[in-house]
Design goal:
With 343 residues, the chain is of the alpha/beta class. The chain has two domains: 169 residues, Dihydroxyacetone kinase, domain 1 (Rossmann fold); 142 residues, Dihydroxyacetone kinase, domain 2 (Hypothetical Protein Tm841, Chain: A,domain 3), CATH 3.30.1180.20. The protein contains eight helices and 14 strands. The protein has a six-stranded mixed β-sheet, with helices on both faces. It has a six-stranded mixed β-sheet with strand order 10-9-8-13-11-12. A hairpin with a 2-residue loop joins strand 1 and strand 2. Helix 4 packs antiparallel against helix 5. The longest helix is centred in the last third of the chain and has 17 residues. It is globular. This is Dihydroxyacetone kinase-like protein. Its EC number is 2.7.1.-. It comes from Hydrogenophaga palleronii. Pfam families: Dak1.
Length: 343
């Protein structure tokens, strides 16, 4: 007897990609148009070449500019506003912005005190920002963010990758610029906060690329990727699924080996979602991470929980720790008003 005749199951088919989009090729521009309309009081969007610029820039203030591939929102475009970025350059999904975008954004945002570029440590970003710097005829400098402590080398980056620590560098440097710091002073504090920041992340599966309609990687139902990057690129190792307590401990072990904080240090603890993790789960992860840090005798001075540096619809998240000094703590807590971060 043919057993298949008794089966009510439908044949397995590939799951179609389901997203709010009209076309993969217009996705970024249409998203930016929506951003501009909702936050017209804060920012403006220019589409040829593409960049986002703050509505009101202060003469004599250093213009802090960042950018990179889209798909990480609210990083970077969501942080254009008072007390943070003067402009941001979004490339296509997971693709670096071009030198022409960066030059146009810098020319629109520069207010006579020069520009400071906040650049994630990826080959394309480094090359294109360096090219733009050579094309500009006013003072510019660069801070490279490489907070990802989970990998030392990657085919996607030159050494350690830039991760969720990017938003911390952007906030601190943006506050310094708003307070009237010079270009050299902004660069100094940016390099210092980057050196005092480390991140590690995990993902439960790859994100769905809206261009290809395929996941960036596929893993087993009982596996997770430890040390995953912001583009969904594979991390340090593939490990069995574990509890939030266990995962927090593993991520913090990586971060603590890098930062080596002492009990007298004050810490900023950021738990960041990659785009598809519910806020309730992020609070579970924060609770676990906070408990582990306190058990080590460490002091959490500031905290942040939410989806701040994402990877499209990746389920998972990261932990970032910054060792604060008086200046960095003050700049972090300084007023900020952007689409995605404000206090």
């Amino acid at each position: 007897m043919d057993q298949s005749s008794n089966c009510n199951c439908l044949p397995l088919r590939p799951t179609p990609m389901k997203k709010f989009q009209n076309s993969a090729h217009t996705f970024v521009h249409e998203s930016l148009r929506g951003l501009a309309e909702v936050h017209a009081d804060i920012l403006a969007v220019h589409l040829d070449p593409t960049y986002v610029v703050r509505r009101e820039n202060t003469p004599g203030q250093v213009a802090v500019i960042s950018g990179g591939g889209s798909g990480h929102e609210p990083l970077d475009v969501g942080y254009v506003g008072q007390g943070m970025l003067a402009a941001a350059c979004p490339g296509e999904i997971f693709t670096s912005c071009t030198p022409n975008q960066i030059v146009a954004a810098a020319q629109a945002a520069e207010q006579g005190a020069g520009c400071l570029f906040i650049v994630k440590n990826y080959r394309g970003d480094l090359l294109n920002f360096e090219t733009a710097l050579d094309m500009l005829d006013f003072d510019c400098s660069t801070v490279v963010v490489d907070d990802d402590a989970s990998v030392d080398t990657s085919p996607h980056s030159v050494g350690r990758r830039g991760a969720a620590g990017t938003l911390i560098v952007q906030k601190v440097v943006g506050a310094a610029a708003a307070a009237g710091a010079s270009l050299a002073e902004c660069k100094t504090v940016g390099c210092r906060v980057n050196s005092q920041t480390a991140s590690a992340g995990v993902s439960f599966q790859g994100c769905m690329d809206p261009i290809t309609g395929s996941p960036t990687f596929v893993i087993g139902a009982d596996e997770i990727e430890f040390g995953v990057g912001l583009h969904g690129e594979p991390g340090r190792q593939r490990i069995p699924m574990a509890s939030a307590e266990n995962l927090a401990a593993r991520m913090l072990d990586t971060i603590m080996r890098d930062l080596k904080p002492k009990p007298e240090h004050r810490l900023l603890l950021c738990v960041n979602g990659f785009g598809a993790t519910p806020l309730s789960e992020l609070y579970v992860l924060f609770n676990a991470a906070s408990g582990h840090l306190k058990a080590r005798g460490l002091n959490i001075h500031c905290s942040l929980v939410g989806n701040y540096a994402t990877s499209l619809d990746t389920p998972g998240g990261s932990i970032t720790v910054t060792v604060l000094d008086d200046e960095i703590a003050s700049l972090w807590l300084a007023p900020v008003h952007t689409a995605a971060l404000r206090w």
